Amino acid sequence: MPLLSTELKAAGFSKPAGDGDYLNPGDITKDNEVRFTILGDVSVSGYSCWIEGPEKGIKLRFKDEPKWPEIEERASEEGGKIKPVGAKGGETKPVKFMAFAVYNYQDHLRGVKENPGKVQVFEFTQAGIGGPMVKYLADDEIGEEPATYDFKISATGEGQEKRYVVTCLPGRRRKPEPNKQVEAAYQEALENGFDLTRLWAGADPFKAPF
């Protein structure tokens, strides 16, 4: 399976960092950049939106841009309801998203290069991240061997003025020791049941269902 879908290569990304299992774009700030390498050869992309759940918000994901009847049907199946205009956290509105399995080197978390990295899920809807990522990965040389490249993301501004800067650079995994460390961490995650495609079911990619 190719890392990028044909649709993403053709259309690009015009519409749709933390210490845990997910790398959150909101954690990337002017003082907190992130550097990571992509793991595996699978990405997940489509459209996502939030609905109100019985206890907390529920994220719905669709492979194609959904019509309102589809969103309403899925919301009903999940026991939730559409968030109206003006709702806290924003209304229910499908946006394009992408998700990768990544190894976050985590240098930015504690300021030491010896700090061990972590396997995470990097899911985002920001076109300022997705556009450059698609452009880089659509390049024949980078797309052929994405594991040999790293991505660095920084940010400027805050709130509505926040802008992301995405850079692609020669990867640390070109050297044997860093690559060994990354591969070992990813293999451990796979052996523990990691599956990025579990996102489609709204399940945790790090936890096998049984």
Describe this structure in words.
Mean pLDDT is 87; it is low at 13-17. The protein has 210 residues and is an alpha+beta fold. It has helices at residues 6-11, 68-77, 107-110, 127-138, 140-144, 176-191, and strands at 22-23, 34-51, 58-62, 95-104, 118-124, 149-156, 163-170. It has six helices and seven strands, in the order H-E-E-E-H-E-H-E-H-H-E-E-H. Strands 1, 2, 3, 4, 5, 6 and 7 form a seven-stranded mixed β-sheet that branches. Strand 6 and strand 7 form a beta hairpin. It starts with 5 loop residues before the first helix and ends in a 19-residue tail after the last helix. 25% of the residues lie in helices and 28% in strands.
The largest pleated sheet is described as: 7 strands, mixed
Strand segment count: 7
Strand content: 25-35%
Intertermini distance? 25 Å
Would you tell me the overall average pLDDT?
Answer: 87
**Helical segment count:** 6
The helix content is: 25-40%
Structural class: alpha+beta
Q: Regions with pLDDT < 50 over 5+ consecutive residues?
A: 13-17
Task: Using the alpha-carbon principal axes, give the shape.
Answer: globular
Compressed to H and E, one letter per element, the order equals HEEEHEHEHHEEH
Cα Rg:
17 Å
